[in-house]
Amino acid sequence: MGCILTQEGFAGLMRELAKSYRLYGPVNKAGEGRFAGIDVVRYDFIRQAEELVLDRKSDYAFKEILTPLSETLFYFTENQVKEADMEMQEVLVFLRSCDLHAVRRLDQMYLHNGPAEDPFYRRVREKLHFVLIGCQKSGPDCFCVDMGTNRCEEGYVFSIDNIDESYRFEVKDEAFLPFFAAQGCTEAPVTPRYVTENAVHVEVPETVPLSICKSKLWDEYSVRCINCGRCNFVCPTCTCYTMQDAYYTDNGKVGERRRVAASCMVDGYTNVAGGGQYRKSNGERMRFKVLHKVYDFRRRFGYDMCVGCGRCDMVCPEYISFSACINKLARTVKEETT
Ligand code: SF4
Ligand code: SF4
């Protein structure tokens, strides 16, 4: 069902929703960007409608609610282990189509990648409901159309589009209808907006020969990339983490185990016992990341991991473009296979 609310109706809707759910959405953080006086749009819990940023893509993805940067899994003392409590209210997560597609990738990695689900991910995931933010226009770095993530038709409880002074909703989950009725919404057919054209285009190669591993294509990234890992931390589909044990006592018998976000671009990620390191140069790390996002994941699960949100392009301090790299990969594959 579709319905339309005024600005006041939308504010009332958010107030009422906040009584039953925690609301998690993109928020403008004034002056907290990477340079002095620059804003950044990050995800955070919100209390009122005015806080929600609907007209700009967030600089950081929503994923920290599902995969926090640091998460205590359990506590231990001598022979006893206690799983960390999780007291979490139901949450409404406001996100765009590319990010809703990214949820499928995260689910794939944490729930359907091996014989057992990740229980820590599962217990948070069950609390989340998604609200689709319609896209009026493409961001300058987006390439969602070529990645097939520009549109979502399922997986959300309702959608939201702001057009001038009115707010338009497609309500998919009937459990939410009373919230809209209470605000005196006007029924009307509503289709969430989505973009059909991006300025950036990518050609993702169907197959990649093994020779690409030794290609000179990656050399420029050894020079340009500073392995800061920012591209991984903004990416809605990056899932890597490391484990850390924090001991409260000198004898190492009391403490907690934490899961902490990791980056395949950062030095030390591939260190192994005995002093070995699988990928020493930044070019090799870039090769691993790019092939994982647009080739290896697809070979395993049938679809690409990258959703074309363009955040990694936006955040890179060295202006390294992931989309440009995909196209360089496609050109090199053609040269090597024809
Ligand atoms: S953000 Fe840029 S410089 Fe930093 S690791 Fe990623 S590609 Fe390298
Ligand atoms: S690799 Fe870059 S463009 Fe692709 S999903 Fe991650 S951040 Fe977005």
Spans with pLDDT under 50 lasting ≥5 residues?
none
Mean model confidence by pLDDT: 95
Strand order of the largest sheet: 3-2-6-7-8-9-1-10
Structural class by SSE content: alpha+beta
Total helices: the number is: 10
Estimated radius of gyration? 22 Å
The overall strand count is 14
Strand content: 15-25%
- Helix content range: 25-40%
What string gives the helices and strands in order? EHEEEEEHHEHEEHEHHEEEEHHH
Assign an overall shape. globular
User: Which sheet architecture does the biggest sheet show?
Assistant: 8 strands, mixed
| Small molecules bound | iron/sulfur cluster
Distance between the termini: 52 Å
What does this structure look like?
The protein is of the alpha+beta class and 338 residues long. The chain has a domain at 2-69 and 84-187. Helix content is 29%, strand content 22%. It has 10 helices and 14 strands. It has helices at 7-20, 97-111, 119-125, 144-147, 177-181, 219-224, 230-234, 282-301, 311-315, 322-337; strands at residues 2-5, 22-29, 40-46, 70-77, 80-83, 91-96, 128-133, 158-163, 166-170, 186-187, 241-247, 254-261, 271-272, 276-277. The strands form 3 sheets. An 8-stranded mixed sheet has the order 3-2-6-7-8-9-1-10. The chain is globular, with a radius of gyration of 22 Å. The N and C termini lie far apart (52 Å). The model has no long low-confidence stretch (mean pLDDT 95). Bound molecules: iron/sulfur cluster (2 copies). One iron/sulfur cluster binds at residues 234-237, 293, 306-312, 322.
